[in-house]
Amino acid sequence: MGRLIEGKWHDVWYDTKSNQGKFKREDAQLRNWVTADGSAGPTGDSGFKAESGRYHLYVSLACPWAHRTLIFRKLKQLEAHIDVSVVSPDMLEHGWTFDKATGSSGDALFEQSYMHQLYTRNKADYSGRVTVPVLWDKQTQRIVSNESSEIIRMFNSAFNELTGNTDDYYPEALRQDINDINEFVYHKINNGVYKAGFATEQAAYEEAVQALFEALEQLEQRLSTQRYLVGDTLTEADWRLFTTLIRFDSVYHGHFKCNLKQIEDYPNLAGYIRELYQWPNVAETVDFYHIKRHYYFSHTMINPTQVVPVGPDIDYTQPHNRG
Ligand SMILES: N[C@@H](CCC(=O)N[C@@H](CS)C(=O)NCC(=O)O)C(=O)O
């Protein structure tokens, strides 16, 4: 794990010392948008028109943020239009790699060894973390975006004319409600598990775990009276929650010490993740080998032996019993 400083790779862990042992996530820096006509999106430059074969998606199958983009690629039938490279689950001194011997598909575009080389290809003197997912533009040879929440919005609508798929996971009428629940889920759950897992002081850890489990209780209640996070419409908010919940019992519960309960202990949440897991084409985006291997093997300051646990053994194909 490390970061680029003016284009040079440095192998450093997150700095929690200056922040009372608390993990603080940095904002993604590369924030352009693919749009149907190539006009500028809410941020960044124009010139990224939705075209078949023009964009390439770099992901880790372990990463919950990258996982969102893989799900949207399936839901919106973009497989024929956007190809993918998968990094190795092992993220050690070089950060994300394309080492085929340890589970990467290889870098389909440039046959590079390391993800940080893609960032310096985009900007030679780049400074910042080298994260996945990344959406790359083959035409301008630039990174369009390294922010998953925005990549899924592009996938949701920009390519509709190409695919003919007009399913909408961010419908106009529900946007305020979706934004509100996203905000809650992001801070308390998606990033909440990381705040617990990467905390380096007891108080910081306990604070994060309390907030996380209070939030899970609230979601369990919410799903007792409605099918999805925003009423009875499945939206992006559900997919954003799903990628954290599906990793919870396998890695966050043990590795990140989020162990007051498992998701399996919450009847509504347990049924809900099964329903989403069983959604057409979604199960094939879930790879528990990459998920467990990445966290337990890469975070050597949390798990120095790098031993990956065998369990838990959970059947997500069981009936979800949600009507
Ligand atoms: N805001 C980003 C966060 C992505 C992110 O943090 N990805 C993790 C993998 S789960 C990563 O690449 N971490 C490497 C690092 O922080 O150095 C997004 O949602 O796309």
UniProtKB/TrEMBL annotation:
Catalytic residues (UniProt): 63, 194
Binding site for glutathione: 96, 129-132, 147-148
Gene Ontology molecular-function annotations: glutathione transferase activity
PROSITE patterns with a match to the protein in the record: GST_CTER
Highest taxon in the source lineage: Bacteria
Site note Lowers pKa of active site Cys, residues: 252, 295
Gene3D superfamilies the UniProt entry points to: 1.20.1050.10, Glutaredoxin
GO cellular component terms listed in the entry, alphabetical order: cytoplasm
Matches recorded under InterPro entries: Glutathione-S-Trfase_C-like, Glutathione-S-Trfase_C_sf, Glutathione_S-Trfase, Glutathione_S-Trfase_N, GST_Omega-like_C, GST_Omega/GSH, Thioredoxin-like_sf
Domain GST C-terminal: 171-298
Protein name, per record: Glutathionyl-hydroquinone reductase YqjG
